[in-house]
Design brief:
Blueprint: H1 2-21, H2 29-33, E1 47-48, E2 54-61, E3 66-73, E4 79-83, E5 101-104, E6 110-120, E7 123-133, E8 138-141, E9 151-156, E10 162-167, E11 170-175, E12 181-183, E13 192-194, H3 199-205, E14 211-213, E15 219-226, E16 232-237, E17 245-250, E18 260-267, E19 274-275, E20 285-292, E21 298-305, E22 310-317, E23 323-330, E24 343-344, E25 349-354, E26 361-366, E27 372-374, E28 384-389, E29 394-399, E30 408-413, E31 421-422, E32 431-436, E33 442-449, E34 452-460, E35 466-471, H4 474-482, E36 489-494, E37 499-505, E38 516-521, H5 540-547, E39 551-556, H6 566-570, H7 579-594, E40 598-608, H8 610-621, E41 628-632, H9 643-650, H10 657-662, E42 675-681, H11 689-701, E43 707-711, H12 724-739
Length: 745
C-alpha cells in the first residue's frame, strides 16, 4: 500500500508544480468537440494469461503500421512480443490486420482476432475473424466464402479445435484443421434470428452473443427469435440519394407484441434442433440469460416475465430436454438481470445476486435451489463483481457504503459470514476498477475522479501494493490543469423526504457577492446517474459553460442508478417523469434558499435522452422555476418508447394508463412558458424522431413558441458525420447565451 501511495503522491506533486509554471490556456469548444485535444490514453485491451503470471495487450508497431500482441510479466514488468504485427500480414497482403478485439483459447495456444468491424445498432459486433496458432504462426481467415464483415460472436470450442459463429442470422461451425464449415441453422432471415438478438434484447437486456458451446464441445445451445409480429418503425434517409429511402426497424413499443423467443440445442456436427418447452407465452416472457453449467450437459436459463418482476431460473438437460425450476426471484416493482453467476464446490452451488434484504447482495445458492446463504453482508449495495475466487475463498467486488458518488474494492469470504474487508486504500477518494488475475494475486487497477483522468497500474492483492504504472495520462492532466478550472464540488441537498447528491461548478471568476444564472444538467432516469466522482472526459462542456458565467449544478433524484438500496431505486416504479421532476423541483427551491449567489430568475435546464424528457417535464410542470431549457433526443410520450425498458419501470400500460400519461411531457406541453430548444437526430433508432415531431405538433396546436434543430441521419448520440458534435454544442451555447443571460450581477 505504501508504494502505491508514494507513486500517486509524487505524481500529484509533479502535476501541481507543472500547473504553477504553466500559463493558463483557453477552453474552446473546437478543442473539446472538434479535435482530440483532450482525449485520454488507455492501456489494453488486457487479457490475463491462464497461469496468472502475465497479461497480454496490443500495442502499435510504428515500423509495420499495425499492432503487436505483447506479453508482460506481472511481477517484473518484462515485456516480450508474442505476435508481431508482421506476423499478422495475411498471405498475399501488404498490411497487417488491425486488431479491434481478441480472445485467447482456453489453453492460450491460439489467438482469435476480430477486425474490419461494422456497427450493429450501438456496438461493433460484426466483422471478420482470423485465428493464429501461436506456435506455428499460421494465420487463417474464418468464414471464407461468406460476405465480408458478416461474422458475429466467433468463439473457440472448449478444446480449440473448432470455432462457431453467426453470419446473416444463421449459426456455423468451422473445423480449424481443414477449414470445413457446417451450417447448423438454415432459416435465418430478416425476421428469424438465430444466435443473436433483435434490437430490444440487445438494447435493454444486454443480449448480443446468442449461442453457447457445451463444455464437452459436442453441442451448441442457442436463442432463436421470431420477430414477424413485431411492429416495424421506419427511419427515413432523405440526404444520401435523390429519393428518400425508408429503413425498416422492428421495434416493440409499449403494449405491442414482442419477438417470440426460444432456446434450442443442436449437435456441433449438424442435424435437427431440439427445443426446450418453457411455460408461458414466448411473446410475453423474456429468456434473458442462458449458460451451460460447467462439466455438465445442462443449461441454466433465466426466464423473466413481461412485467419483469419475476425471474424464474430453470435447469435444462440438453439430452432429455427436461427442465426443472430451481429458483424464483420476485419483487413488487421490477428486477434487473445480473451476470454474477459462478459455480462453486464441484458445481454444487452457484452465486446469485438479489435485493431480497433491501440491498443488492451476492448469495450462495444450492444447485437444486434448496438453500440460499448471504455472502456480502452489510447495509450497502454491491455495485459490481470484480472477481470470484473459489480456490482462495473470496469474492472481490465494488461498493461504496459511505459515499454513493465513489467506488472502491472490497472482498468477502465465500464460506464464512463476516464484515466486508475494504481493499482499496483510504487515501484515494474517487472511483476504482479492477481486472483481477485468475489467482487473485494481481490486478490491473484503474483510478479516476472528477479532476484526475484514468490512471492505470498493476497492483498486488490483497495489500494493494503498487508494482508499476502503465499509463498515467500525464499529458492530458497537464492540459487540464493549465485550464485553471474551478473544481467540481460535491454537496448534499435535503428536500425533506430524502437527501440528494449533487455537484456544482462555479464560474472561473466567481464572486460570491454577485448573483449568477443557474444551469441544471439532468438525467434522472433509472438507467444511470450524473453525480459521480469520476473523470467523465473532464466534463469539459460544463466547465466551458461555467467559464461563460453560469453556475452548473446536477442532482441525482430518487430512482437513479446509485448504490443507495432497493427502496431508493424502486421508488420510481410506475411514476417515471413524475417523482423525479418533483424531486428536481424541490431540490432547486432548496438551492435557492441555501446559496445567495444563485439568481433564481435566471434558471435553465438541459438533458439528453431521459434527461431530455426530464427537462421537458420540469419546464412544463414547474414554469415558475425553469425559464430556459434544451431537450435533446427525448421521449415525449412514454408509449412511444420500447416495451422492455418502459414496462420494466412503469408496469404494463393496461395497469398504469394514468402513470404513462401523467409522466409524459407531451400531455403537459400547453404549460410551456419559458424559452425551449428541442434537438433530435432523424435516424435515432433508440428514441425515434417521431417523439420530436409529436411534441412539435402539440406545441404548435397550443400556439407555444419554441426553437428546434434537427440533425438528418444522425442517431441517438448525434455524433455521426462531419462536424456534428461541435455544431450541436455551438448551437446549445448560442441559445443559452441569448435566452439565459450569463455572468454575475
Amino acid at each position: 500500500m505504501k508504494g502505491f501511495l508514494i507513486l500517486i503522491i509524487t505524481a500529484f506533486f509533479q502535476f501541481t508544480v507543472f500547473c504553477v509554471a504553466y500559463s493558463q490556456n483557453e477552453l474552446r469548444l473546437e478543442d473539446v468537440f472538434g479535435s482530440a485535444t483532450y482525449s485520454q490514453k488507455r492501456f489494453g485491451p488486457i487479457r490475463w494469461m491462464k497461469d496468472s503470471r502475465g497479461y497480454s495487450s496490443i500495442e502499435s508497431n510504428a515500423e509495420v503500421g499495425g499492432d503487436d500482441m505483447v506479453i508482460y510479466d506481472a511481477r517484473t514488468g518484462k515485456r516480450s512480443i508474442l505476435v508481431s504485427a508482421s506476423d499478422l500480414i495475411p498471405a498475399g497482403g501488404t498490411a497487417p490486420l488491425k486488431i479491434a478485439e481478441y480472445e485467447w483459447s482456453e489453453d492460450n495456444t491460439k489467438l482469435l482476432i476480430f477486425t474490419n468491424t461494422r456497427k450493429v445498432w450501438r456496438f461493433h459486433t460484426r466483422g471478420d475473424y482470423w485465428v493464429m496458432d501461436v506456435a506455428t504462426r499460421k494465420l487463417q481467415q474464418l468464414g471464407k466464402g461468406m460476405p465480408s464483415s458478416s461474422l458475429m460472436f466467433t468463439k473457440f470450442s472448449p478444446d480449440a479445435s473448432k470455432v462457431a459463429y453467426v453470419s446473416e442470422h444463421n449459426i456455423f461451425v468451422e473445423t480449424l484443421a481443414d477449414g470445413k464449415i457446417v451450417q447448423l441453422t438454415h432459416d435465418g432471415s430478416d425476421v428469424i434470428i438465430n444466435g443473436t438478438f433483435d434490437w430490444v434484447y440487445e438494447e435493454e437486456l444486454g443480449c448480443r452473443d446468442g449461442f453457447r458451446w457445451s463444455p464437452d464441445g459436442e453441442t451448441i445451445a442457442y436463442w432463436r427469435s421470431d420477430a414477424k409480429d413485431v411492429g416495424t418503425f421506419y427511419l427515413i434517409n432523405n440526404i444520401d440519394s435523390l429519393y428518400s429511402r425508408p429503413i425498416p426497424l422492428p421495434y416493440p413499443k409499449v403494449g405491442e407484441k414482442l419477438s417470440s423467443v426460444k432456446i434450442g440445442v443442436v449437435s456441433a456436427e449438424g442435424g435437427d434442433t431440439r427445443w426446450f418447452d418453457f411455460p408461458g407465452d414466448p411473446q410475453n416472457n423474456y429468456l434473458a440469460r442462458m449458460e451451460f453449467i460447467p462439466a455438465s450437459r445442462e443449461v441454466m436459463v433465466q426466464q423473466l416475465n413481461r412485467r419483469q418482476n419475476t425471474n424464474t431460473v430453470w435447469v435444462g438437460d440438453v439430452d432429455t430436454m427436461e427442465i426443472t425450476k430451481i429458483l424464483e426471484d420476485t419483487d413488487e416493482a421490477f428486477l434487473d438481470i445480473h451476470d454474477n453467476i459462478q459455480w462453486l464446490e464441484n458445481n454444487q452451488f452457484f452465486t446469485w445476486t438479489s435485493e431480497r434484504d433491501g440491498w443488492l447482495h451476492l448469495y450462495k445458492v444450492a444447485r437444486d435451489g434448496s438453500s440460499m446463504k448471504l455472502i456480502t453482508e452489510g447495509d450497502f449495495d454491491v455495485v459490481g463483481i470484480s472477481h470470484i475466487d473459489p480456490r482462495g475463498g473470496y469474492v472481490y467486488y465494488i461498493a461504496s457504503p459511505e459515499n454513493y458518488t465513489q467506488r472502491y474494492l472490497y472482498r468477502s469470504s465465500l464460506n464464512k459470514p463476516g464484515k466486508a474487508e475494504r481493499i482499496t486504500p483510504e487515501a484515494y477518494p474517487g472511483q476504482h476498477a479492477y481486472q483481477i488475475s485468475p489467482d487473485s494475486r494481481y490486478a490491473i487497477h484503474t483510478f479516476q475522479n472528477a479532476k484526475t483522468p484514468p490512471l492505470y497500474s498493476v497492483v498486488n492483492l490483497p495489500d494493494h501494493r503498487s508494482i508499476r504504472i502503465l499509463e498515467d495520462n500525464r499529458e492530458l492532466k497537464d492540459k487540464y490543469l493549465a485550464l485553471n478550472l474551478n473544481p467540481k464540488e460535491f454537496f448534499k441537498v435535503d428536500i425533506g423526504e430524502v437527501v440528494l447528491d449533487a455537484f456544482m461548478i462555479k464560474p472561473a471568476d466567481f464572486d460570491p457577492s454577485k448573483r449568477y444564472p443557474l444551469l441544471f444538467y439532468v438525467y434522472g432516469e433509472p438507467a444511470g446517474s450524473t453525480v459521480q466522482d469520476s473523470w467523465q472526459n473532464g466534463d469539459l462542456w460544463h466547465h466551458y459553460m461555467a467559464q461563460q458565467g453560469y453556475v452548473v449544478i446536477s442532482i441525482d433524484n430518487r430512482g437513479t442508478r446509485t448504490p443507495r438500496g432497493r427502496d431508493w431505486r424502486k421508488s420510481i416504479y410506475g411514476q417515471i417523469g413524475i417523482l423525479a421532476s418533483e424531486d428536481q423541483y424541490k431540490a432547486a427551491k432548496k438551492i435557492f434558499e441555501t446559496y445567495d449567489f444563485i439568481d433564481n430568475e435566471r434558471v435553465g435546464m438541459w438533458g439528453w435522452s431521459g434527461g431530455g424528457q426530464m427537462t421537458l417535464n420540469c419546464m412544463f410542470r414547474y414554469p415558475d422555476v425553469y425559464k430556459t431549457g434544451i431537450a435533446i433526443a427525448f421521449v415525449s410520450d412514454q408509449r412511444l418508447y420500447d416495451a422492455t425498458y418502459q414496462e420494466r419501470y412503469m408496469g404494463l400500460l393496461e395497469d398504469n394508463a394514468w402513470g404513462y400519461r401523467e409522466g409524459s411531457p407531451l400531455h403537459h406541453a400547453e404549460k410551456l412558458q419559458g424559452d425551449l430548444l428541442i434537438m433530435h437526430g432523424t435516424a435515432d433508432d433508440n428514441v425515434h424522431y417521431q417523439s420530436f415531431e409529436m411534441l412539435v405538433d402539440k406545441l404548435v396546436k397550443h400556439n407555444k413558441m419554441f426553437f428546434m434543430m434537427s440533425y438528418p441521419m444522425r442517431a441517438h448520440g448525434i455524433n455521426e458525420r462531419e462536424n456534428t458534435s461541435l455544431h450541436l454544442r455551438e448551437t446549445m451555447k448560442k441559445f443559452l447565451l441569448e435566452k439565459l443571460p450569463s455572468g454575475g450581477k
